[in-house]
Amino acid sequence: EYRSAVRRQWVIGLVALGVAGSFAAVGLRQQVLRPQVSSGRYLTPLGSHVGVGSFPCNMVSSPDGRFLIVTDAGFREQLTVIDGVSGEVTDKLEYNGGGRSDKQGVYYGLAFGLEAGSPVLYASRGIGGFVSRYKLSARGKLTKLDGDFAVDESLRTGPVAGVAYDSVHDQVAVVVNRATSDRDHHGDVVFFDAKTRNPMFTV
Questions:
Q1: How far apart are CA 109 and CA 126, in angstroms?
Q2: DSSP letter string over 47-100?
């Protein structure tokens, strides 16, 4: 009986040691798999993670600070609305394009403007050559509005990228990324009248 008791204690000890070693190995593996940035430092994300599509490239806060809107530039492109308190996704509009010929995509540009006293989200549509307008509800839902800021066809040799709203002059500035050799790698900024959505001038 004594030998059996000793044997059981050894077995229990080995099992406990094996479990502890497994946890240590998992912890070590997680430490090794932490994302490393170009500076050599490691990133350790805190809290819960929220899926927002592929390659999120820009994020803006709603004017009241209640929601965050994220845009993507990867394979699964979408506009995602996130509750700023709970972290939950309240809405998403998917633009899963079928290649460069498909105009249903989004890109970097995001900005809030004011139309008739109400906030409106402006989102660039990349190679589509225009900026769309969306209404954001109190529940964090996006609704696409009719009428876009369309860049002239002659300027659409690159994607519509950045978007900014000038509240002083009530204008929307749209950056066209035409960084090609024939343009000496210079792009364009097209200014639109926010009310009429007509182009005013190009820089």
A1: 9
A2: S------SSEEEEEE-TTSSEEEEEE-SSS-EEEEEETTT--EEEEEE----ST
Contacts of 27 (CB under 8 A, 6+ apart): none
With contact defined as beta carbons under 8 Å apart, do 108 and 71 qualify? yes
How far are the Cα atoms of 40, 117, 151, 163 from residue 154, in angstroms, in the given order?
43, 33, 8, 19
CA 22 to chain centre: 37
Q: Are 106 and 123 in contact (CB under 8 A)?
A: yes
Give residue-wise pLDDT tens across range 138-149.
999 999 999 999
Q: Give how far Cα 139 sits from Cα of 59, 90, 116, 136, Å.
A: 18, 7, 20, 8
**How far from chain centre, in Å, is Cα 6?**
60
23-68 tens-digit pLDDT: 444 443 444 456 777 788 887 777 778 889 888 999 999 999 999 9
- Segment 158-172 shows an average pLDDT of 93
Give yes or no for a contact between 159 and 138, defined as CB atoms under 8 angstroms apart. no
Q: Which amino acid is at 23?
A: F
Separation between Cα atoms, residue 79 and residue 134, nearest integer Å:
10
